[in-house]
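Quick one: structure tokens for this chain, please?
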Amino acid sequence: MRILFASFVIIFFCLSANAQYVMPEKGEVFVDTEVPRIDIFISNDYLDLILHPDSLQSFTEYPAKFIFRTSEINDTMDNIGFRLRGNTSRTSAKKSFKVSFNSFEKGRDYKGLEKMNLNGEHNDPSITRSKMCWDLYNQAGVPSSRSNHVQLYINSEYKGLYINVEHVDEEFVEKRMSDGSGNLWKCLWPADLNYKGTNPLLYAEPEPWGRRAYQLQTNEEEWDYSKLAHFIDVLNNFQGEEFKCELERIFDVDNYLRVIVLDILCGNWDGPIVNKNNFYLYHNPCTDQITYIPYDLDNTLGIDWFGVDWQSSDIYDWSQYAGNESRPIYDRILAVDEWRDRYSQYMFEAIQSTFTPQILNQYLDEKLALIESHRVNDVYASYDYGYNYNDFVNSYQVGIGAHASIGLKPYILERYETAAFQMSLNPFPPFISEMDLVWSENEINFLLTPISGTQLSTATFHYSINGGNWQTENCTIVANEISYAFTVPQNGILIYYFEIEDTTGNVASYPRCQDATVKLGYDDVPNIVINEFLASNLNKQTDESGEAEDWIELYNPTNNNYELDGLFLSDDENEPNKWPLPDITMGPESYLMIWADNDEQQGPLHAGFKLKKTGEHIGLYDSKNNNYAPLDQVDYPEQETDVSYARSPNGTGDFAFAEWTTFGYNNDELSSSKELHKNEVILFPNPTSGLLRTQDGENWNLEIYDFSGKIITRNFGNEFEVSSFENGIYFAVLKNSKGDRFIQKLIVQK
């Protein structure tokens, strides 16, 4: 019997089975096939302040120069912020550092990163443990940091072999979540997730030493702890079926089950299960779910300060190491039989496919070969615990003593064998691990995938439209995946759920407990079109920085004003909300030029993507509340350099290669011109501080448009006063009595 709570609306981009996450590519910063070199150049006075014993707990950043080098790139960035980071590493000889690219120049990033964590790994003789763990969490699909080994130099002095770990912030969640605008809490000791009361601000109270256990990292102006407080309330106080239903609704339980598997296999005792420490929680407004994000994985793979053999610890009783303290995120979740059995299945999959001695030993051999030459001269690695180069090499095979009493490979072997022995596999109700939903105005295509180990028998789709009678349709099962195509009969609200049965007779529904609700059809959308674009610009228009970048021209063919706030441009039809348009208004018959240069820091009219010369998709989409309804889309073929692709007739016709590029102007005007002298100077001086003249002294009809395509002035004559214009780039269109038309970029500079 289904327990019916209030139905909730999920638009199609939020709809997911225990939210699926995007795992970004390594990219140039986290390259793993070599060891990049990072240079920091900083005033010796500033460096002395950073390293002074009285400043070790300081978070003050000092300006420095940053250089990043690989075999492919050599980048320099001035005026970055530089400081110490970490906890125990602040008092170590081999310190950890944070690089901030936007501290002194707001809005700036380096290849999509605002910050960079450079960890000295002073506890780990192998300088590899956290790196291996990050790779395992990434591989399992857990939203987690990218990482790689780097060489660090400060003022040309080699500071040693470091691990570069991706910082968890707004950019991190935007890359992985369906909505990156939510609240992100950094949870540090003593973040035990125990219930404090109904007032959300109880969880925002500082600890006696000043730091908060749950520190809000985003949306700090709103200071809203209500979602966190409700999660902790449910985690501690709800019971029975209500507990299961409500926790799955507000928390990605399945993601956290995979985290528990990896925490225990990797021996990550410095997280919430044992040490109530080191994790993030992110609330996604799109799904209204909280997601667990791991943090700080250096005390792993046999690093131990308590005399515990983590490699043989009971995989079902880890909270015993927390003493008499409650660990609800582990104890209460594994107390639910279905979740415990699913956890066991994920543990089984891990030791069958990823956490095996054969696979991980090869991984370690490759890592050692890659990094050992950079450890030879890392003198700082020996200062804290006396580790020398031989200890570094030997630590992969044997224990070095003290807190590193077991080698990496022996740890992996024993953990693998004891986990397999301790594991108890039981059947559990079928569970959907992933659901893909492709939505159009006329059809919704569902594809549901169960977790491995589940064999499906039947699946039915139950639905009601606009509160009408419930109906049932059979779904198709192919290769153990459920597919169903729902034809949209009318606009309105669709309420639905799937009923799924496996071959053992176990039945479950998806979503569990509550019906899913999705809006059918689209509301009316603004009549704005993609009118022209240039996907390979070498010698044509330049932006305000003088760079010849690709561009997209939008056009409003109506007599209405349209606000662009909430609309999106994208080069991927599967990600319609890729780049939000700026909060401006397009007037009647106006043009707006967008630079497709993936350089948003240059201004609000610079999109977060580039165009491919070889051909791709460009789409203009409505807001989230209208299911990202397409306003206009074009799938274009391979383009020619410096030749635009434009609609003809203007605003309505099909796209074709343009004879003349009409940047921010009517596509039909030039095609009807008798003659166009593209390179002839018509108006001068240019740049101008106020007065323009025609070169031939004749009278011309003049129209001047601003950079967004809005007309600023119309005039007639051979001299034109523009001293009232603000500094910037404009476009002048001149017409004479012969029917000639000329377009010229105009720069006003006073």
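The longest strand covers residues 74-85.
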